[in-house]
Input
Amino acid sequence: MALSKPGWAESFDTGGALIDIVVSDMTTDAWRRVFAHFKAHPEVWTPCAGFERAGQMAADYAAANPDDRLLAQGDLPGQLNAWFLDDELEIDLDPRQLTEDEHVVTLQGFMRELGQLLHRDVAMSWEGMREAVVFRYRYATDSID
Output
């Protein structure tokens, strides 16, 4: 089976470029929520130091090494790489692994979950091109467009 919804196949045909899920303007409280959420779901989020698996996740953003990243292997094929960048949470994914409609629906569900956890909008765009939004979860209306 393949992506069948109008526009989805084109949205995920990036020629190998990654897609970013981004939450901007992260506050100390938002980081606290993200770390707590990741720790509460060890079946999904694997802590890493640099590019290697680590025994445990940093206590919070202040204690994390700026080069650390967290890997997630969950409902989507492949892996998500969550990067902690000052006031921005960026989660990379390889769009070539989104080959079924249900994968995109799961991705949108993850964006909604993240937005509701943080009480803010969540955007998905081409890597390094924040203005090229593929999907956006809007917290105020609980909708994805």
User: Anything to note?
Assistant: The two ends are 24 Å apart (CA to CA). The beta strands are 19-23, 45-49, 52-53, 69-72, 80-85, 88-93, 122-126, 129-138, 143-144. Residues 31-144 form one domain.
